[in-house]
Amino acid sequence: MARSSIAGLLGVVLATFLLAAPAFAGPRKPKVIIVDSIGTAPDRNDVRSKLLSTGLFEAVDLFDASVGTPSIAALRPYDAALVTNVGPWSDRSALGNVLKQYVDEGFGVVQTTFTVNGVPNSDLAGGWDASYRSIVFSSTASGPATLGTLADPNHPILNGVSVFNGGQFSFRPNGTTLTPGATLIASWSDGKPLVAVGPKINRADLGFFPVSSDVNGSYWASNTDGVKLLGNALMYVIRPRILIIHSFFPTGAEADVVAKLRSTNLVGAIGTFDARAQGGSDAPTLNQLKEYDAVLVSNGEAWKNRDALGNVLADYTDWGGGVVVTTYANAGVPLSDLGGRFTGDYRIIEFGPSTFGAATLGAIVYSEHPIVAGVASFNGGTNSPRPLGTSLAPGGLVIANWSDGKILAAASTRRHNRADLGMYPPSSDARSDLWVAGTDGARLIANALLYTVRPYVGIAFSHSDPIPGNTRTRLLASRRFSGVTLLPPLQNATPSVTALRPFGTVFAASNANFLDANAVGNNLADYVDAGGSVVLGVFSVTNNVNFANSRPRGRWITQGYDITPEGSTGASISSPASLGAFVGPPHPVHQFVRRFDGGSASFRQGNNPLLRGRRLLEWSDGKMLASLHSFRRRVDLGFHPGSSAEIATLWNVRTDGTTIIANALHFAAFMKPCPGDFNGDGLVDDSDFVLFAEYYNALIDPRGDLTGDGNSEDADFSIFAQSYNALLCPS
Question: How many CA atoms lie within 13 A of 6 on its CB side?
Answer without folding.
Answer: 23
